[in-house]
Amino acid sequence: MPIFEFQCEECGEIFEELILGSKFEGLKCKKCKSSKVHKLMSQVAYKSGEKFIASSGSGCSSCSGGSCSSCR
Ligand SMILES: [Zn+2]
């Protein structure tokens, strides 16, 4: 399942979205409804601000992508 992580640039909320195809225009932050969100690359260290703490590393025991519900 193509689930990607996104981070809101307004409030810093990180959320996951199931993306079909390659379109994720119109995504909105689940918390503040801002549309200023960007996709996070879970395996790559994000260029980060102080706010962003490497969220998902390399996964947990039940997946390898760091994107399942038990990864946090
Ligand atoms: Zn937000």
Could you say which overall geometry the principal axes of the C-alpha atoms support?
A: globular
Helix share bin: under 10%
The run of helices and strands is EEE
Radius of gyration: 12 Å
Question: How confident overall, as mean pLDDT?
Answer: 74
- Give the beta-strand count: 3
Q: Main β-sheet, in a few words? A: 3 strands, antiparallel
Q: Looking across the biggest beta sheet, what order are the strands in?
A: 2-1-3
Whole-number total of structural domains:
1
User: Which small-molecule species are bound to the chains here?
Assistant: zinc ion
Organism: Caldimicrobium thiodismutans
Protein name: FmdB family transcriptional regulator
InterPro entries: Regulatory_FmdB_Zinc_ribbon
Region (Disordered): 53-72
Write a structural description.
The chain starts with a strand and ends in a 32-residue tail after the last strand. The chain has a 3-stranded antiparallel sheet with strand order 2-1-3, with no helix packed on it. The protein is built from no helices and 3 strands. 11% of the residues are buried. It has strands at residues 3-8, 14-18, 37-40. The chain is globular. 0% of the residues lie in helices and 21% in strands. Residues 8, 10-11, 13, 29, 31-32, 34 line the site of zinc ion.
Main traits of this protein?
72 residues, mainly beta, three-stranded antiparallel sheet, 3 strands, 0% helix, binds zinc ion, FmdB family transcriptional regulator, Regulatory_FmdB_Zinc_ribbon
